[in-house]
Write a structure and sequence with these properties.
Elements: E1 2-7, H1 33-37, E2 53-59, E3 65-71, H2 73-76, E4 81-85, E5 109-110, E6 116-122, H3 125-134, E7 136-140, E8 154-162, H4 165-171, E9 174-182, E10 185-186, E11 194-199, E12 204-208, H5 213-224, E13 231-234, H6 250-262, E14 266-269, H7 272-278, E15 281-282, E16 285-293, E17 299-310, E18 332-341, H8 355-373, H9 377-383, H10 401-412, E19 424-426, E20 429-441, E21 447-454, E22 458-462, H11 472-484, E23 491-494, H12 511-534, E24 542-544, E25 547-550, E26 553-556, H13 557-561, E27 566-574, E28 584-596, E29 602-612, H14 619-638, E30 669-674, H15 698-710, H16 721-727
Parallel strand pairs: 1-27, 2-14, 12-13, 17-18, 22-23, 29-30
Antiparallel strand pairs: 2-6, 3-5, 3-7, 4-6, 8-18, 9-16, 10-15, 11-12, 11-14, 16-17, 19-20, 20-28, 21-22, 21-27, 24-25, 25-26, 28-29
Helix pairs in contact: 8-15, 11-12, 14-15
The chain binds dioxothiomolybdenum(VI) ion (MOS).
């Protein structure tokens, strides 16, 4: 049995609200939480296989060039060494999780420092590492390698031009024209990229750490010239992806090539340095924001122009303008994205690509405008919420932005007043507060899941969907439990194996609404079948605690099944419901910071986030996603920055000691409010994306709080002490 839905219309039935089990949205622990915290959940690098060999990648010490020769003999005689693999297929760039859009290109030319060029395979990891360090390579150059995005060739993409922004700026009562820079970011997932490949002569099985198995399987088959059916990927637990595992990267291809060539299982685990040097980066950005407003603070013009970068030949351009398209009004609009071609590792999706660096700059500009107007910054934002998409005219499917600003302000204890810095000092610390809006576009993708009702009063959910720490196991159990009248403990959720029906994968915050909808549809199919067996209408059926009830009767589910399992595949596809409306998650951030008057050091003292994400499927994991996002806001605002050597182009800070993500001491009490909301257009379960929303704008609230504290307007992220001191007015 299967149920297919291409969602062309909003689903206003709110079916989940009509169910009786009462577990949807509940605050429940993760079913896999215990094995994760006790270290018994097996991650990619921890799998073993009989006769397994270890591979260590050799990476390029140049930003651009071709290998003239590889002296394999230099290491083949070393103890334990079995092979040097330099197949050009493994030199390809990491995929972006977009299999099918562009065929895999084997490459001989190296185009960034740290690009893998060979794999040394040995009996033990230590032998392989030793040999990898000694492998002699000769290079010759293949041309210029521009390193500076400001000086490189660019491609232009003017995405929106409406009215005349320059004219609006000239006529406006108040204007803001600021240029703000952000530096590159690493995904910095805790679990390194790793793969164990096994080849039985026909089928390749790879245990790896990946976000989107359906696409990754196609990518790997494509790169190895195998049929997709010959590739099985297994990835039940993923220690964070944040975009870096959306597509396959070199460790997967290298382990597979080696296993196929040597006829033994081969494991390849990237070192932390290799993860930093080789895997996707977030582009640095330079953004110019222009705001024109009338005397009452109504925007008449809105401009957002950005410069981002990528390698020559790559399509991805950090989509900085994504929510600038519709967050605020202003009839005269100019949005423009330029892409510079430089030789740093591939730029791709990293933690909320686009909005994570695009919203905070707009929010800084709004703070400056509020100050010029003598207005409370929340009042300014409320005055400028457009009635519909300012360029396309499509209505918002749901938007709790005003409520998030208002409710968040209450929870935080926001004092509405025009901004005037240096109002509070405690010893050598200036104290200030700041606010910012949050917005991230909603996306859903095709997904399938199989749900099986078993005669023992349990159910099984199967999909190749992943749980990258986001809570997939939890929410799919809650959806199935609600629909089938079972407790989530009685739902066995199995993920991360391409033998299961292909899910959506985890990316772009679409996992819960997409895969959740597939599970929902499968359960709708099961409910229909149960009602048919009972000879009642589906609407007359109540499933609760393993019992089926209807007007005048009640029976155990097990009896209806007659001792046989009953399964259904749910197949969800996005349709025009998300094109006919502007569908986005929204929220608001509030931050209180202390800035040291002598050193410029900033400490975030507390933060509140209020979010509207459609239906909350699971209170605990949704809150957790928001906590994670807000934590990244702190890193984005204060510490995170990829530092490239301007002379030879290598990444200088390629470990977690030098690339500073927020640690416990950096993260104060974070408060999360989830506002009740249903979005019928977003998905048949009325849920929108949540994963990335929490990091879209919050760094701007911190920047605005720094200004409110000490009077420093900093226009470069991260706002390190040197930058804060330089921008601080004299005491
Ligand atoms: Mo996300 S950065 O699309 O994993």
């Amino acid at each position: 049995m299967s149920v297919h839905l291409k969602q062309d219309k909003p689903d206003t039935r709110n079916v989940l609200d009509t169910m009786a089990q009462g577990v949807i949205g509940a605050d429940l622990p993760r079913p896999e939480g215990l094995i994760k915290v006790t270290g018994t959940a097996i991650y990619a690098a921890e799998y073993r296989a009989d006769g397994m060999l270890e591979g260590v990648l050799v990476t390029a010490p140049v930003v651009r060039g071709e290998i003239a020769s590889i002296n394999e003999a230099s290491v083949l005689g070393m103890p334990g060494v079995r092979a040097v693999i330099s197949d050009k297929r493994m030199t390809g760039r990491p995929a972006q999780g977009t299999a099918g859009e562009a065929p895999f290109q084997p490459a001989r030319e190296v185009c960034y420092w740290g690009q893998p060029v060979a794999l040394v395979v040995a009996e033990t990891f230590e032998q392989a590492r030793d040999a990898a360090k000694r492998l002699a390579l000769d290079w010759h150059g293949t041309g210029d390698a521009p390193l500076d995005p400001e000086a490189a060739e660019t491609e232009k993409d003017e995405s929106t031009r409406k009215g005349d922004l320059a004219h609006a700026m000239a006529e406006a009562a108040h204007t803001v024209d600021v240029t703000i820079t952000t530096e590159g970011h690493a995904s910095a997932a805790m679990e390194p990229h790793a793969a164990l490949a096994q080849w039985d002569g026909r089928t390749l099985t790879v245990h790896a750490s990946l976000q989107m198995l359906k696409y990754n399987r196609a990518e790997l088959a494509d790169s190895l010239k195998l049929e997709e059916e010959q590739v099985r990927l297994v990835s039940p637990y993923v220690g964070g992806g944040f975009g870096s595992k959306l597509g396959i990267s070199q460790e997967v291809v290298a382990a597979s090539l080696a296993a196929m060539q040597l006829g033994r299982p081969v494991r390849v685990v990237m070192s932390r340095q290799q993860v930093f040097q080789t895997i996707m980066r977030r582009s640095e950005t330079r953004q110019r924001i222009r705001l024109a407003a009338d005397a009452e603070g109504r925007l008449t013009g809105f401009g957002h122009e950005a410069l981002v970068s990528n390698l020559p030949g790559e399509d991805f351009a950090e989509p900085v303008l994504q929510s600038s398209q519709f967050l605020y009004g202003g009839d005269n609009r100019l949005l423009k994205l330029d892409l510079a071609r430089i030789h740093r590792m591939t730029a791709g999706s990293v933690r909320a690509p686009g909005e994570a660096v695009g919203v905070q700059t707009v929010e800084q500009a709004m703070d400056i405008l509020a100050e010029k107007l003598g207005m409370d910054p929340i009042a300014l934002r409320l005055r400028n919420l457009p009635d519909a998409h300012p360029a396309k005219g499509t209505p918002f499917s749901s938007r709790k932005l005003a409520e998030c600003l208002e409710e968040g302000a209450k929870a935080f204890g926001w004092e509405p007043r025009p901004r005037a810095p240096r109002h509070t000092r405690e010893g050598e610390w200036w104290i200030g507060t700041g606010v910012a809006s949050a917005a991230r576009v909603h996306a859903v993708v095709e997904a399938k899941a199989r749900v099986t009702l078993r005669p023992d009063r349990t159910a099984l959910v199967e999909t190749d969907m992943t749980d990258i720490g986001t809570g997939t196991y939890t929410i799919l159990g809650q959806i199935a439990g609600e629909m089938l009248g079972l407790m989530p403990d009685d739902i066995d959720v199995r993920l991360g194996d391409t033998d299961f029906p292909p899910g959506s994968g985890s990316g772009g915050s679409w996992g819960a609404p997409s895969c959740g909808s597939a599970v929902f549809l499968a359960c709708e199919g099961l409910r229909k079948d149960i009602a048919r067996r009972l000879d009642i209408g589906t609407d007359d059926l109540t499933l609760k605690d393993g019992l089926a009830r209807w007007d005048g009767g009640e029976t155990a589910l097990a009896d209806i099944l007659g001792g046989e399992p009953l399964d259904c595949i749910g197949h969800f596809e996005p349709g025009s419901s998300i094109e006919d409306a502007t569908v986005s998650s929204f929220g608001a951030f509030f931050a209180e910071v202390a800035v040291n008057r002598w050193t410029g050091e900033t400490r975030v003292r507390r933060m509140t986030g209020a979010f509207g994400i459609g239906r909350v499927l699971s209170a605990r994991t949704a809150r957790s996603q928001c906590l994670g996002g807000m934590t990244w806001c702190i890193g984005n605002a204060l510490t995170e920055s990829l530092m490239f050597d301007p002379v030879d182009g290598h990444l200088a800070n390629c470990d977690l000691a030098e690339y500073h993500v927020p640690v416990h001491r950096d993260v104060p009490a974070l408060e999360v409010l989830l506002l009740e909301e249903r979005d019928a257009a977003a998905s048949p379960i009325q849920a929108k994306g949540v994963g990335e929303l929490g990091l879209c704008g919050g760094a701007g609230a911190i920047a605005n709080a720094i200004y409110d504290a000490c009077g420093a307007r900093v226009f470069a992220y991260p706002m390190t002490p040197d930058r804060v001191i330089a921008a601080m007015p004299d005491i």
